[in-house]
Structure formats: C-alpha cells, structure tokens
Amino acid sequence: MFDLTGKTALVTGAGQGVGFGIAATLLEAGAKVFVNDLVPERAVAAAEALGSNATALPFSVDDREAVVSAIAGIGPVDILVNNAGIPPTMRPVKFRDMDPAEWAAYIDVNLYGVINCVSATIDEMCERGWGRVITISSGAGTQGLNIGVSMYGAGKGGAISFMRHLAVETARSGVTANTLALGLMERDAPNVTEESRTVTASMAKQVPVGRLGTGRDIGYTCVFLASDEAEWITGQTIAVNGGSVTT
C-alpha cells in the first residue's frame, strides 16, 4: 500500500523544515523528488542530503516565468506539493500596524505561488489521467488568530478556496486536489537559544498530543493523499494539528 514507485514529485519550499520532511517521506515511498527552494544553495544541499533520487530545482514560486521554465525542463510531474509559504520578510504584525507595501509578499507566495505551480503542471496531469495536487496550508487559513498573521492567513485561505474549485474541475480527469491545514510545527533553528526552547515547550503544551508537528508528520499524510488508495479523496481541507480545535 501507498507505493509511489515510478511517480515524480515536486515539493516547493523543500530546502528545509516541513518541506524537507515531506520530500524525504515521498522518497521513502518510492517517488523521485524534485526539491525546490527559493535559495539555490539550500535546494542543492537538501537534494544531496536526500540522496540520488532527489534533484534540486531552485526557483521562486511567485515568479511565473521562472516556474514555467524550471518545470518545463524536468518532464511530467505526477505529484505536486505546494509547500512554499513563508516569505523572507514574514513577521508577526497585526493588520492595522502593517505597511501596505508588505501585503503582496504573503499573497504572492501563498496564493499566486500555488496557482503558478498548478498552472505549470495540471494540463499534463489531466492529459495522462492521473495526478495529485497537495497544498500545505495552515490553521491561519481556516480560523481567526490574534497573533499577527492576518495577511498570511489571507493567502492561505485563498489557496484553500482555489484548491476546492480545482478539485471539482479536474476530478473526472483522474486528478485530485487537497489541502492540509497545519497546526503548530517545529521550525529549523540552527542556533537554538534557551529562550527559544522555553517558548517551544510552552507551545507544545497547547497541543493535545503534547508536542509540535514535524515534517515527517506532514509527509506521511502527503504520501497517503498521493497514493492510488486516496483516489476518492479530493476537494478536502484536512486538519493535521495534533488534535487542536479548529473551526
């Protein structure tokens, strides 16, 4: 079950964190994986760490021309995981305190980034009669949070709506489209401070299962949704959050 041998996957934002975990899990299930990252050196390092069935494919998802050019050069993509979603300028700030010049970065990555990558892969999926599109969203896209992520939530919420419509449009072509709404996740931290450990421990206590999520947790769900066994699941937004309450 859940054998992805012979499938080609593209995971955006896979140079680190959740995306790296997703890429690693897809590889273990048998897929060949293209590792995308905004930073070329990070994409290369991640692909080297993942092994011979992983290939670096650096580009910025919000640059449509770069997306189309890069994907055109790798052949058909069977599994697209839209994971890229945190702009380099991201910071917690409430909407009323945000400079309008900051708005676009969140929408460009989280909505247009998803649309760009889908546009570059969906036609071939439909023509072949098989494809999987999985978008990594967030609880910030499904409920209101008072932690300064309003524009991030706007981008994530927009992508959720887009995926629901895409699912209906492509269902008869053998292509599924689903979204994962993540809860509190572990983040890469090369220089972890004692203060960071304290904050992380406090956050983990809020999660019913008692810990933060990992890239592997998300990767296992992606493997299932990418499999033949999940062909009757499409248009869904699935909360992967350790039991946290969502609305």
Automatic annotation (TrEMBL):
Family recorded in the similarity comment: Belongs to the short-chain dehydrogenases/reductases (SDR) family.
Pfam families: adh_short_C2
Keyword Iron: no
Name assigned to this protein: Unannotated protein
Keywords (A to Z) from UniProt: Oxidoreductase
GO terms for MF: oxidoreductase activity
UniProt keyword annotation of Oxidoreductase present: yes
